[in-house]
Design a protein that fits this description.
The protein is mostly helical. Helices cover 71% and strands 0% of the residues. The protein has 12 helices and no strands.
């Protein structure tokens, strides 16, 4: 998913990522034998529509961000490195965009499968979310190392790929020489670990589909922080998108009632049963 983001605009990335909730809902029905009511499917489509409108607002109105002044040799070296990396990418724009969209869409299918598999695992085995996060982190680390080595050997060490995204040697040099990169990488790891733990806790308590709808609302908080820091400008179209996003999430999770009686909610089991849950 992150590799796909390198090839497309952030707005296209956001719109493509909105399909996650649909994939999670579909896989829950197919593999977990869940039954989603009409209002829940409608809520999922409302969530996707809200995410698409947010991405469309970003595509229609480009922000003109200020470029930090380059002071000292460190900034000059960083700018020179970015220029070399940009020159290394010679793929046509249309091909890069299509490849990026396919990568992001494929990542949503993989993430949806992960959410559904996590729900099945937590239902059938007595595993704590923290332990599951640890095993997932170990597996992800091994897969990432193998992928990084493979991409470096096939792309990164070539003339066109040197100083590019897949140059592992250059990446290691930046990580060890620039403190800001090392610190931000460490903070990202901590953030992702906490995100996965709380996400698994939601999956265990409610469902994978509910987790995916709540997860999509992260965009709202990112938008609020970006506005407060001055990283982007206020757009009314984004307000409409976020309103649909929050509304669809609330309807799906039975926080508010659906507007039509024909899509009324079916009786549901209590969220936290009085008796303890027994696992196999």
């Amino acid at each position: 998913m992150n590799v796909g983001l390198l090839f497309v605009a952030a707005s296209i990335y956001q719109m493509t990522r909105g399909a996650l909730v649909l994939f999670v809902g579909l896989f829950s029905v197919l593999f977990l034998r869940r039954r989603l009511q009409i209002y829940q499917w409608s809520a999922l489509f409302v969530v996707v529509l809200g995410v698409a409108i947010v991405g469309l607002a970003g595509a229609l109105s480009k922000d003109h961000k200020a470029v930090p002044s380059a002071g000292g040799e460190t900034a000059a070296a960083t700018i020179a490195l970015l220029r070399r990396a940009h020159q290394a990418v010679t793929t046509p724009e249309a091909v890069r965009t299509i490849a990026g969209i396919l990568m992001i869409a494929g990542a949503q299918i993989f993430t949806a499968s992960q959410f559904v598999l996590e729900e099945w695992t937590l239902e059938n085995y007595a595993l704590e979310p923290l332990k599951v996060v640890g095993w997932e982190g170990l597996f992800g680390f091994l897969v990432t190392v193998v992928g990084m080595v493979g991409l470096h050997l096939t792309i990164g060490r070539t003339d066109s790929g040197r100083y590019g995204y897949f140059d592992g040697k250059e990446g290691w040099r930046e990580l060890t020489q620039y403190r800001s990169i090392a610190v931000s990488s460490l903070l990202i790891m901590i953030s992702i670990g906490g995100f996965n733990f709380f996400g698994l806790s939601v999956t265990r308590t409610v469902s994978a589909t509910s987790r995916s709808t709540i997860d999509t609302c992260r965009t709202l908080f990112i938008w609020i922080v970006s506005l407060s820091l001055g990283w982007e400008t206020f757009k009314w179209l984004q307000v409409l998108g976020f309103a649909l996003l929050v509304y669809g999430t609330f309807v799906f999770n039975d926080i508010i009632a659906p507007p039509l009686k024909a899509c009324g909610r079916a009786p549901r089991a209590p969220l936290l049963p009085e008796e303890p849950i027994e696992h196999v």
